[in-house]
Amino acid sequence: MDTDGNMQEVTFNPAVSVNGNKSAHEVSGVNYCYIEIDTMVFRPATYVLNGKIYTQSIKLTPGSYTLNKFLMMNDNGTPDDYSDDVIILATPMAGSDYAAFVNQPAGFSFAVGHLRKSNVDIEVVLFTPSDYDKFGFDFDVLPATTIREQRFTGLILPKNPADYANSLYMNQSTGLQNEMPAIFSIDVFRNGRFVKSVTNEDQLGETYVSVTYPDGDNTVDEYRFDLNVYLRTGLTFGYKHIKTWEFVDDEMIPAESDSLVHFVLSECGSTGSDLEIGPYMNLPESCNFTIKSGWAPGSLGAYFDGDLGDIPIGYSIGNGLYSAWCGTDSVSININHTYQMDVYNSLTPSVLPAYTRDASRWNAINWLFNNLSNYSSPSWGEIQGAVWKILNDWDGISHTNVPNADGITDAMVSDALSHIDFKPECGQKAAAVLVPKGTNRDAISPKLQVVFIMVNI
After folding, report:
1. Which of the 8 DSSP states describes residue 269?
2. 438-445 long-range contacts, CB within 8 A, separation 24+
3. pTM for the predicted model, two decimal places
4. Are residue 133 and residue 258 in the same domain, yes or no?
5. Which residues contact 239 (CB under 8 A, 6 or more apart)?
6. Of 196, 194, 169, nearest in space to 185 by CA
7. Same-domain pairing of 95 and 212
8. Per-residue confidence of the chain (457 residues) as pLDDT tens digits?
9. Hey, which residues does 287 pair with through a beta bridge?
10. How many domains does the chain have?
């Protein structure tokens, strides 16, 4: 840099880029720009002339400079306090996801000449805080934001450690064990938008996962953390969505005394641990499902026969007929029509669509089907009626060939609802829940009957 010349005026001329299409126009709410040049920071005010945005000039000595960061800011009504300011537009940094939206991402060089004013053209993109990383920014670029952190660690308890031969768990320092540190990831969503995924896979699960995320000081931010654990999936291995936590602003997921959120995932029934998620069932992501003719009852003694198809080998369920039950008494489903269905484990209900996510009701269902021997030869209709009452608050009035609720039905319901904390043990059963493929997890009403089958753990 030449430091011998006189200071020269430099202005910046931002043009808004929308997916690579530039538009030089006024953007509402911009008061000034935050500009990092080499190791210097400038905050020139903005103004509009003939419909085009300009910055007030800054002064630099003639020479070559690197523009590291360019942000267009709203001062939130407090021009003398930068702590609550908000980014409106920004120039993506070189190498970032959004760098392709501009011809010249931040990190470029420009020259300031002698005895003349310099004008630097620059492109900016509309900014949302949840996309900070797509601009190549760290959290500290977000004014009026508190950076929060939560840490996670977990264990998996395989039914048979040998089932994990040739998986990543085999490379852990202790090898395959009855209890192994979980390899997992946390997907972070803020206000409904994906932010990032954090994993301990590179450390083979032998470290905790630290999740840092921005919490706007002047906004209500809703968060969703999805826990995905590396597990058996069919005959191979992959990540399965096991649990979802949802919270707002500065709420925190309950942690242990070591400040870590712990979880335990067993493959063989309940461990009795308060930290337990699951147990895990090796279920396919989806399958084809057809209700066969001849229902209420079906040939297997349930409400209907469910014909499952398109399931690869290696899962806890396979292709063929299953005793199937209906979870919603007021929504229809067609006979002899093949549906594509997503398959869920009722023991991990936080991942189910909202309209059938109630953990206590699924726990009651699982208790009932593991304790039918408590009742004197209950009929298929009495069982189906109990299911409707537990899952769907059925009024007990006969329809679709299910008889009126009777004393046995009511006894089953009462007993089941007194066991809403039930977790099946190894050798018992749990429901696999089928809903239409692609159902949004926030859906509050079903478009098709919820159906389920019972699976051995």
Report:
1. B
2. 438/342, 439/342, 439/353, 440/353, 441/244, 441/351, 441/352, 441/353, 441/354, 442/353, 442/354, 443/353, 443/354, 443/355, 444/354, 444/355, 445/355
3. 0.74
4. no
5. 184, 185, 228, 229, 230, 231
6. 196
7. no
8. 444 457 899 999 998 876 544 444 446 678 999 999 999 999 999 988 877 788 999 999 999 999 999 999 988 788 887 777 888 899 999 999 999 999 999 999 999 988 778 899 999 998 877 788 899 987 667 666 777 899 999 999 999 999 999 999 999 999 999 999 999 999 998 888 787 899 999 999 999 999 988 787 777 889 999 999 999 999 999 999 999 999 999 999 999 999 999 999 999 877 777 789 989 999 999 999 999 999 999 999 999 999 999 999 999 999 999 999 999 988 999 999 999 999 999 999 999 999 999 999 999 999 999 999 999 999 999 999 999 999 999 999 999 999 999 999 999 999 999 999 999 999 999 999 999 999 999 999 999 999 999 999 9
9. 341
10. 3
Domain ranges, residue 317: 286-456
The Cα–Cα gap between 106 and 91 comes to: 6
Q: Rounded to whole angstroms, how far apart are CA atoms 27 and 247? A: 33
Q: Is 2 among the domain residues?
A: no
380-392 and 359-369 helices, crossing angle to 10°: 160
Q: For residue 362, which amino acid is it?
A: W
Kind and range of the H or E run holding 392? helix 380-392
Burial of residue 430 (number of CB atoms within 10 Å: 0-12, 13-18, 19+): buried
Contact (Cβ atoms closer than 8 angstroms) between residue 457 and residue 348: no
Report d(CA 389, CA 328) in Å as an integer: 9
Q: Do 125 and 198 sit in the same domain of this protein? A: no
Tell me how long the chain is.
Answer: 457
What are 193's strand-pairing partners? Answer: 190
Looking at 123, 141, 159, which one is the last position of a domain? 141
